[in-house]
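User: structure tokens for this one?
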Amino acid sequence: AASGSTSFGSLVPKVSKQVSSSTSNNVGGAASILVDTASDLQKADKIGVSGSVYATGLSSATATIANGSKVNGNVEAYSHFTNSASEATTLYNSAGEATENSASYATTLAGGDANVAVGTKSEIGGSVYADGDKTATVSNAGMIEGSVIADTLHSVVSSTSKSTNLNNVGLRKDETTNAYTGIGGAATVTNAAGALIGGDVYVAGATGILTNGGGIAGKVVLGQSIDNHSQTQIDTVTTTTQTVTPAEALTAQTYTFDQNNFLGGGVYVGDATITDPFGRDDAPDIKTSDVKATVNLNAGSVTLGNIVGQRDAETGAFLTDTVLN
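Assistant:
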């Protein structure tokens, strides 16, 4: 009798590369909420909503406070979302050891329009906030005790990372680069004649328009800091190197303020820079935006504060452009 065996182990392919990828996409539509207090309850001075009001929608978000209605808290409309895509790759040697990892990650804006409308004789006990990827609009014909924020300025990121010599600690090298791009939409705040805002007003976008026909007790801030740069960190067993590179094109922010009535505070045009993203005390601020504003102090307006543009802390040079009419 004869016996024998055959092995096919050497014919089984070994894994030399492994790749995985994923995407994350938001799905949704429009959201809207209406607070419309019945007239008999208005006459009895009743609060329509004792807490806050929120509208969150992918394509749009709208919060409307009808004439004469009261909200004790904040009113917010939110349509800021990001989609993302990522990929990771691992390389292996003939012994099956992982020798190299690389990955990429990128985001895109996915939101839409955010709108808050406060009707005549309506009262908001807190603040009003509109945040959208395309537009952010706040219109006030009543009274808002807190501040008003219209924000349509956001960043997306494209990130890459690579680690080599994973099986040799002495030669290992890890490198990560994050490239940010600032993207803005249209932000608008309208404070109608007879309307009141008890706090400050913040406007941020690629374009921003603020019209004050009523009263604003606080200050006006035009401009917002935004990530618009690339940063790289390289690590070895003995060293860490960090570099920050300004973007080739600054994020444009252009504002117009038509001041037609009362402003208790001043106007600040700024936030064209960010602090060092690595938190290094000795690193200079990075200019990421080109912020321009036109401030029109029209006939009949009263502005108690100063009109201030951002300056470089060391040289005193202006970092923003402001035209005062």
